[in-house]
Design goal:
Archaeosine Trna-guanine Transglycosylase, Chain: A, domain 4; 26% helix; disordered N terminus
Length: 173
């Protein structure tokens, strides 16, 4: 499989553990997802996150999309003071530093997680997820999928097929 950049793709193999990345599920607002595809979002900013490891982020897009349909490969988080994290946000997308600082200013440390690759799949709607799982509530933070084998299996099934689109995100640290 070839990516939009013309390079061979490592996605579509259905195995989250292939490259040692921790499989996680996190929600994302569709506005920020669109910024990612526009090349304006190169980091995910969080109040808490994994330390010292890369992650494979199965993306649940919040309302009005309400769909699990993408995978984002994340590098190890940059952990620093809220001010330093806000500086990264400002360098990544001018004008974004102030909102990130407001989001994390009450913390001793915050997380800037480099986005490395993004792949979108046909995915699964909220209704389909609930039909398969019996109950599904989109995560408020992040969920380690190794602790939720049925949900991990569904995520891997979604990513086993061909992607709709994919891209590599340039490093903007």
């Amino acid at each position: 499989m070839i990516s939009l950049s013309g390079q061979p793709s490592s996605f579509g193999n259905g195995d989250a553990a292939d490259d040692g990345r921790e499989p996680i599920l996190m929600s994302l607002n569709p506005l920020y997802y669109d910024l990612l595809w526009a090349g304006e979002k190169t980091h995910e900013f969080r109040r808490r996150f994994l330390t010292g490891q890369s992650a494979r982020w199965y993306v649940y897009l919040t309302w009005p999309v309400a769909r699990l349909d993408a995978v984002i490969d994340l590098g190890p988080a940059i952990i620093d003071t809220p001010e330093r994290i806000a500086e990264i946000a400002e360098r990544s997308r001018p004008g974004n530093g102030a909102s990130v600082l407001e989001y994390v200013q009450d913390l001793d440390q915050a997380f800037a997680i480099p986005i490395q690759r993004v792949t979108e799949y046909p995915g699964m709607s909220l209704e389909q997820l609930r039909a398969q799982l019996g109950a599904f509530h989109p995560p408020q933070g992040y969920t380690k999928l190794r602790n939720h084998s049925e949900l991990l299996s569904i995520c891997e099934k979604i990513t086993a097929g061909p992607p709709s689109r994919e891209m590599t995100v340039p490093d903007h640290t």
